Structure formats: C-alpha cells, structure tokens
Amino acid sequence: MSQLSDYNPYQQNRIYELENGEELQIRQALLWAEQEGDRTYTLSKGDELDLIVYQYYKGKVENPERYWWLIAEVNQIENPLDISALVGTTLTIPDVLALQFLRG
C-alpha cells in the first residue's frame, strides 16, 4: 500500500471577495497527462467524490477517501462539494500509482 503526502490544492487556495460581492477562488492547479492505468466513472445521482475515490483507491493508499481532490483536479470540477449538476458526466479516475510526485 502506498502512502501519499497530504498535498491538496484545495487547502492551498485563496478566496478573494470582489467589489461586486462575488468570491473568486484561486488555487494551484494539478497538471495531469492521461496515464495507461487511468479508469473512468460515470456520475450518478447521490455520488460524492470521497466515496468514489474510496472505491478506486482502497488498498492502494492509506485513507483513500482523503484523495477526492485528485478526481476534482483531473476533471476540472469547479465545486467538488456539489457535483449534482454533473450527473451523467464521465470522470477520469487517475491512476494513483502513477502519482509519483505526491509520494512522501
């Protein structure tokens, strides 16, 4: 089982309030090139990223549910806490073993 670092670009973000009252989130993006071991998953009603990632990464990394942000970043999901509008969308599930740059 692999141990990934706690790096999470959503923890590294900054939220700015604009003059018109809107908020702007800026974070460091994860650049991802398609890998041979990537999988796909089609979103259904009620899905949550932490449960999806647990299904695919269980037994490969410790605390797999903590890596929901990988799916969010690779699929450029703007609001990973509410994916209800994305039902029917096919997501790329990145090959966690190819994420060498995240290993601690």
Output the CATH topology: Membrane-bound Lytic Murein Transglycosylase D, Chain A
Oligomer: single chain
What Rg is obtained from the alpha carbons, in whole angstroms?
14 Å
The CATH class name reads: Alpha Beta
Short description:
With 104 residues, the protein is of the alpha+beta class. The chain has helices at 49-57, 68-74; strands at residues 14-17, 23-26, 39-42, 90-93.
If you had to describe this structure to a student in words, what would you say it looks like?
Strand 1 and strand 2 form a beta hairpin. The chain contains two helices and four strands. The longest helix is centred in the middle third of the chain and has 9 residues, at 49-57. It is an alpha+beta fold and 104 residues long. The chain has a two-stranded antiparallel ribbon. Helix 1 crosses helix 2 (68-74). It has a single domain (14-102), classed as Roll (Membrane-bound Lytic Murein Transglycosylase D, Chain A), CATH 3.10.350.
Question: Can you tag this structure with a few keywords?
Answer:
globular, two-stranded antiparallel ribbon, 4 strands, 104 residues, Membrane-bound Lytic Murein Transglycosylase D, Chain A, alpha+beta
Give the arrangement of secondary structure elements.
Elements: E1 14-17, E2 23-26, E3 39-42, H1 49-57, H2 68-74, E4 90-93
Antiparallel strand pairs: 1-2, 3-4
Helix pairs in contact: 1-2
